[in-house]
Design a protein that fits this description.
- By secondary structure, the chain is mainly α.
- About 95% of the residues lie in helices and about 0% in strands.
- It is built from 2 helices and no strands.
- The protein is rod-shaped and about 60 Å long.
């Protein structure tokens, strides 16, 4: 049960990070659009840096989701293997009892 709690806390932390990055991306996209619509050379030049920041944020989100996926798979695998060990132990105990 404690392991499940740690996994859930890790998931929650990652989702909060993802949500924060996505909110930053929303603001970046709004600023990029405003700069584009203004057609001012300085604003258009600023978009280069903003688009780079947006791309880096997208990479971070992908990485966080990849880590979440890996963590989830590990937690499921550890639950499955713990269950398999318990099942095997019970089966052995049942067979080893005298009839």
């Amino acid at each position: 049960m404690e392991g499940d709690n740690k996994v859930m806390q890790a998931f929650q932390k990652s989702f909060v990070q993802v949500q924060s990055i996505l909110e930053q991306n929303r603001l970046l996209i709004n600023e990029i659009n405003q700069n584009h619509e203004s057609k001012l050379p300085d604003n258009l030049g600023r978009n280069v840096g903003l688009i780079r920041e947006l791309n880096n944020n997208i990479r971070r989100v992908v990485d966080l989701y990849a880590e979440l996926s890996t963590s989830f798979a590990r937690s499921v695998d550890s639950d499955d293997s713990a269950g398999a060990v318990r099942s095997d132990t019970r089966a052995v105990q049942k067979r080893s009892r005298p009839i």
